User: Fold this.
Amino acid sequence: MSQIRVRTITKEDIDIVDRLEHIGFSEPWPRSAFEEIVDKKDAQYYVAQNEAGEILGGCAMFFIAGEGDITNVAVFPEYRNQGIATKLLQYVVEDGRKHGLVEFTLEVRVGNKPAIRAYEKVGFESEGIRPNFYSHPKEDALIMWIRE
Assistant:
């Protein structure tokens, strides 16, 4: 895989990020969520792109009381299993620390072993289960943290 660059979302990215959301999730965020996050001060949406500027994946992080709540990590299917999610999350955690965040959390489907492995590579550790967190299909969520 060529060099991956991570940056924050711009208005020009909304169409592709909206498409990524609909491909990656059974309950996608509405387009308006991406339109709003572009200008938010307490949240950021990050995109990973290749050297040609093509968006490969993305995720959001909300800044809550010194913690980063990471959500909606997704990579386009044709680019999965190439370390893109890991690079994206490494950047997100590093950027969060620059903004004064000291801990990071996320939820992931208990059956999503590739995502769990990527999160562990970045330093996330399992700290519990949220029963029936996901509804389509119904599944528990693994709660993962990076704690300082």
Q: What stands out?
A: The chain is about 30% helix and 40% strand. Helices lie at 14-24, 31-37, 84-98, 113-122.
